[in-house]
Design goal:
Number of strands: 0
Largest sheet: none
Structural class: mainly alpha
Shape: globular
Strand content: under 5%
Number of helices: 7
Order of helices and strands: HHHHHHH
Length: 167
């Protein structure tokens, strides 16, 4: 039963990210590169603070993403709070289950992302986002901070999915 709840949660989070991303890229009144530029500018503002991001700042960041994707402020805030609560819960479960990452793990993962980006169909969109940072290195430094939390979650979820597949 517990595994089914976690699986449902993982599916829910994936759906939230997918729906948000599809909505974000499919706005008819703006090019995806322009949207990525706007989102990149907002991310750069958060990244430039160089301080630990609070839970409220993470909610605000998610809210801004949802608003850029076309949601009104009230719905965007509700979705952001829901998403960030689920993300934090998954992170806590990952840490409690012994999932962590080293600097080397994160750097290796980011190198994989760079390789994927170089061959992506929407490479221009990603570059539009990166261009909003002072340098490409600043963008990847920001991503490093993001994956300090995301990578344990991804590894935890991946192992849960394997366990369920084995049953």
């Amino acid at each position: 039963m517990k595994r089914r709840k976690i699986s449902a949660l993982v599916l829910f989070l994936a759906a939230v990210l997918l729906i948000g991303t599809v909505t974000f890229y499919s706005r008819a009144d703006d090019s995806s590169a322009s949207l990525m530029s706007r989102w990149g500018a907002r991310l750069n503002e958060y990244a430039s603070r160089k301080t630990e991001t609070s839970a409220q700042e993470e909610i605000n960041q998610a809210k801004e993403f949802y608003m850029l994707s076309g949601m009104d402020e009230e719905m965007a805030e509700a979705k952001a709070e829901e998403y960030m609560a689920e993300r934090e819960m998954l992170y806590q479960k990952a840490v409690q289950s012994g999932y962590g990452v080293t600097d080397e793990d994160i750097r290796a993962y980011l190198e994989e992302l760079k390789t994927l980006m170089d061959s992506a169909d929407n490479k221009e969109d990603v570059q539009a986002l990166i261009d909003q940072f002072g340098t490409e290195e600043e963008y990847w430094d920001y991503q490093y901070r993001v994956y300090e939390k995301n990578l344990p979650i991804q590894n935890y979820v991946k192992d849960l999915e394997r366990q369920q597949a084995d049953q």
